[in-house]
From TrEMBL:
Oxidoreductase as UniProt keyword: yes
Domain Aldehyde dehydrogenase: 16-477
Name of the protein described by the UniProt record: Aldehyde dehydrogenase family protein
Similarity annotation: Belongs to the aldehyde dehydrogenase family.
List of catalytic residues: E250
Keyword Hydrolase part of the UniProt annotation: no
Length: 492
C-alpha cells in the first residue's frame, strides 16, 4: 500500500501526529493508499511557510512576468504528467479515465491562461476633482490563500483556484478532500520541478474538523477559496467573517435542463443524459432537473429511459465504461436515501432506483442510472442536491412556466436551454437565475469563461479574468504635487 506525505515549505512531511488514514478505490471498495492525518499543528506549519514565502525571499521579488513564466513552466510539467495523474484520480475517485484524462490534458490551459494574465494586472490613474494631487491605484495580492477542494474533480478544481491565486502573487495552502488526497499530493511536487520557491505552495491533508477548520480560522490566512457542500460553505463564510477574511465559495446546484418542443430532440436527449449521468451525476453542474414541454414530454421520456438503460457500467479505466461508481460510502448511502424520499413524496420511478449488481461493477459502490417522473417543485428530490445519477423529470407548458419552475430553487449554478428559437434563447438566458446558461449544449467549461453561482450556489467567480479579482486588493496612493497644506483640522 502506497504511503503518502504532505508537502510543507518545499519538503515532503509526515503529520505532527504521526498518524495516517486509508483512501479507497471506489471501483473495488478496497483501500489502496495511506494519507497523513494532519492536525492544527501541521496547518500552522504550512501557513507559516506560506506567510514567510509571501513576505520575503524570492517570491515577492519576482516581477509579474517572472511569476507568469513559472506558471507557464508548470503547465509544461503538468502536461507531461497528465496521464499519470489521471490514473491516480481514477483510482481515488472512481470517475471515468476518459473524463479524467481529458480534464488533466486540458488542465495546463489554466496555468497558461493565468500565466499570461500575471503581468496584465493593472492599476489606474484617477482623474481627481482636486488640484495639486496625483492619485493612482495599485492591485496587490491578498496574502496566504487557503484552497479547500472536494472529491469529485480534485485537480481540475485545484487549478481553477490556484492558477489565478499564484498569478496574483499570493501563496497557497491546499487542503484536498480526505477521500481524494493522493492526486493533490502528487501534483504539489511538480512545483519544485517548475522552479517555484519553497513555501509558495503547500498541502496539508486530513479531515475537515481537524485541518479545514484550523485553516479557516488561522490568523494569517487572508482568503479562503472553497468548493463543496452549501452547508459547509455557510459555516466557512460565518467563520471567515470573524476575522474579515475574503471568501470565494462554489457551493453546488440543482440545475434545470429545459427542453422546448422546437429543439433538436436528438441533441437534447444526449444533453439530458450528459447532464445527469456523466460523472455518475457527481458534479456541481449536474442537470438533475429535466424540464420537458408538454407536447414532447411522453415521447422524450420514452426515448430517455430507453437510452439511459443502455449505459455501460463497470471499471472506470475501461474505455467502454460510461457510468462509474459513486466515489464515497457516505455519498452512496445518501443517494440510496433519496430514492426512498422521492417515492414517499409521490415521484414515479421510471428507471433504476437501486444499487447495481452486474458482475462488471466489481465490489465497489455502483448505483444504477435512475429517473423519476411526475416530479413537482415541492418535492425534496426537486429541491435538494443529490449528487448522484438521479434525474427528476418535470413538465411545463410555456416559457413562463419553465422559468417559474427553473428558478424555484435556492440554488443557481447552471441551467440548460434546448431550442431552435434564437429569441427564446436570449429571453431564457436573461431571466434564468444561474451563473452559467448553456444553450443547445451542456457541461461546457473553459479557463477563459467565468464560472460561479447565484443564490445559495456561492460567492465570486472562478475562471476568466474575473477569477483573479478574488485574490487582489486595491490600494489608493495620493501624492501631493503642490497643494497647500493649511488648516490641519479640515479634510483635504
Amino acid at each position: 500500500m502506497r504511503r503518502y506525505q504532505m508537502f510543507i515549505d518545499g519538503e515532503p512531511s509526515d503529520s505532527a501526529s504521526g498518524e495516517w488514514f486509508e483512501t479507497a478505490n471506489p471501483y473495488t471498495g478496497e483501500p489502496w493508499a495511506q494519507i497523513p492525518r494532519g492536525t492544527a499543528a501541521d496547518v500552522d506549519r504550512a501557513v507559516g511557510a506560506a506567510r514567510r514565502a509571501f513576505a520575503g525571499g524570492p517570491w515577492p521579488e519576482l516581477t509579474a512576468s517572472e511569476r507568469g513564466h513559472l506558471l507557464l513552466r508548470l503547465a509544461d510539467v503538468l502536461a507531461r504528467e497528465a496521464s499519470r495523474l489521471a490514473e491516480i484520480e481514477v483510482r481515488d475517485n472512481g470517475k471515468l479515465y476518459a473524463e479524467m484524462s481529458a480534464q488533466l490534458k486540458y488542465l495546463p490551459a489554466w496555468f497558461r491562461y493565468f500565466g499570461g494574465l500575471a503581468d496584465k494586472i493593472q492599476g489606474a490613474v484617477i482623474p481627481l476633482d482636486k488640484k495639486g494631487y496625483f492619485n493612482f491605484t495599485r492591485r496587490e495580492p491578498l496574502g496566504v490563500v487557503a484552497v479547500i477542494t472536494p472529491w469529485n474533480s480534485p485537480l481540475m478544481l485545484t487549478a481553477w483556484k490556484i492558477a489565478p491565486a499564484l498569478a496574483a502573487g499570493c501563496t497557497v495552502v491546499l487542503k484536498p478532500s480526505e477521500f481524494t488526497s493522493a492526486s493533490t499530493l502528487e501534483f504539489v511536487r511538480l512545483f519544485e520541478e517548475a522552479g517555484f520557491p519553497k513555501g509558495v505552495v503547500n498541502a496539508v491533508t486530513g479531515f475537515g474538523a481537524e485541518v479545514g477548520a484550523a485553516l479557516v480560522e488561522h490568523r494569517d490566512v487572508a482568503c479562503i477559496s472553497f468548493t463543496g457542500a452549501d452547508s459547509t460553505g455557510r459555516r466557512i463564510n460565518e467563520a471567515a467573517a470573524a476575522t474579515f477574511k475574503h471568501v470565494s465559495l462554489e457551493l453546488g446546484g440543482k440545475s434545470p435542463n429545459i427542453v422546448f418542443a422546437d429543439a433538436n430532440l436528438d441533441d437534447a436527449l444526449n444533453g439530458a443524459i450528459s447532464g445527469i449521468f456523466a460523472a455518475t451525476g457527481q458534479t456541481c453542474i449536474a442537470g438533475s432537473r429535466l424540464l420537458l414541454q408538454s407536447s414532447i414530454h411522453d415521447e422524450f421520456v420514452e426515448r430517455l429511459v430507453k437510452l439511459a438503460a443502455t449505459a455501460r457500467m463497470g471499471n472506470p479505466m475501461d474505455p467502454a465504461t460510461e457510468v462509474g461508481p459513486v466515489t464515497t460510502p457516505p455519498q452512496y448511502e445518501k443517494v440510496l436515501s433519496y430514492i426512498d424520499i422521492a417515492k414517499s413524496d409521490g415521484a414515479r420511478l421510471l428507471l433504476g432506483g437501486k444499487p447495481a449488481s452486474k458482475p462488471e461493477c466489481g465490489t465497489g459502490w455502483f448505483f444504477e442510472p435512475t429517473i423519476f417522473g411526475d416530479v413537482t417543485s415541492s418535492m425534496r428530490i426537486a429541491q435538494e442536491e443529490v449528487f448522484g445519477p438521479v434525474l427528476s423529470v418535470m413538465r411545463f407548458e410555456d416559457e413562463e412556466e419553465a422559468l417559474r419552475i427553473a428558478n424555484d430553487v435556492r440554488f443557481g449554478l447552471g441551467a440548460g436551454v434546448w431550442t431552435s428559437d434564437i429569441g427564446r434563447a436570449f429571453r431564457m438566458s436573461e431571466r434564468l437565475q444561474a451563473g452559467t446558461v448553456w444553450v443547445n449544449t451542456y457541461r461546457a467549461v473553459s479557463c477563459m469563461s467565468p464560472f460561479g453561482g447565484y443564490k445559495d450556489s456561492g460567492l465570486g467567480r472562478e475562471n476568466g479574468m474575473a477569477a483573479i479579482e478574488a485574490y487582489l486588493q486595491t490600494k489608493s496612493v495620493w501624492i501631493n504635487t503642490g497643494a497647500q497644506v493649511d488648516n490641519p483640522f479640515v479634510i483635504r
